[in-house]
Amino acid sequence: MKKRQASSFYPYFEQEEKSTVDKMVGFFNRIVFKHGAILTDFLDPGQRDILKTVAGNDAFIQEFGGFADAEKMRVYLSEEWENLRPSDYQVSAFEIVYPAKFVKLSHSSILGTLANSGVETDTFGDIITDGNGKWQFFAKTELKNFFLEQIKRVGRTQVKIKEIPLRNILISEDDSVQKTEIIASLRIDAVLAGLSKNSRSQIKKAIKNKLVKINWHGTEDSNIMVKVGDVLSLRHFGRSKIMDISATRKGKYKVVLKVWQTKRHG
């Protein structure tokens, strides 16, 4: 295994992802020099994609975020394959105990509380709900006492944080909706314009202003052609995944998307 140069990966990613590339190359090079495995903090899918690009086939990558479809996960990077158990990832699960009969919590209010509690945002993972008032989140086990002792409120609501075993994780509510759009082009600006009901010029401006991502990476190119499986996000609108594309008889495209729209409240 040879040391990687961060600059050799810059052309593959956007300018603002340079610091992430540097960080992921740093992880890989630590393995090269120290020959020991690394357990990262929680990484989002874009960061994990960069790490996979950097590592190539020269290191093993295993990941876990507390449950099967977690968005943010801790990554175990090693030279040799190791059979890991969930406990090896040092991910703890927590439930938020509060008077659910009288008040409502929201994802954004919980995220705001955790993000402003004095810890880095990569020290905690996903925040999930069953849609019926139960909320859980995941964090690094080494910070367990901090979350248990320091988080007393979410917004104005008094809360108690309790640790729960991973087997008690709730089935997360999928609040996506399916939408079908008929569009003239599969360019990213056309798809997002049809979906968000903005004009293409507005979407082009959003892309230029770095408000759009495709597959978790920023883009400034309005001409990208989208395909099935792509995940598009537009700041302040939400995220969508392209589930199916078919041609219409009039030469247009029928695009089926799963859409998670940004919630305005909370």
What can you see in these coordinates?
This protein has 266 residues and is α+β, with helices and mostly antiparallel strands. It has helices at 18-34, 45-55, 107-115, 144-150, 188-196, 200-208, and strands spanning 38-43, 60-64, 73-78, 91-97, 124-129, 135-140, 153-154, 157-158, 160-164, 177-183, 212-214, 217-218, 231-234, 238-247, 253-261.
Structural class: alpha+beta
Runs in which pLDDT lies below 50 for 5 or more consecutive residues are: none
Order of helices and strands: HEHEEEHEEHEEEEHHEEEEE
Share in helix: 10-25%
Summarize the biggest pleated sheet. 6 strands, antiparallel
Rg calculated over all Cα atoms: 21 Å
Mean pLDDT: 94
* Proportion of beta-strand residues: 25-35%
What's the short version?
By secondary structure, this protein is an alpha+beta fold. It is built from six helices and 15 strands.
What's the SSE blueprint?
Blueprint: H1 18-34, E1 38-43, H2 45-55, E2 60-64, E3 73-78, E4 91-97, H3 107-115, E5 124-129, E6 135-140, H4 144-150, E7 153-154, E8 157-158, E9 160-164, E10 177-183, H5 188-196, H6 200-208, E11 212-214, E12 217-218, E13 231-234, E14 238-247, E15 253-261
Helix pairs in contact: 1-2, 5-6
Attribute tags:
266 residues; alpha+beta; 6-stranded antiparallel sheet; 4-stranded antiparallel sheet; 23% helix
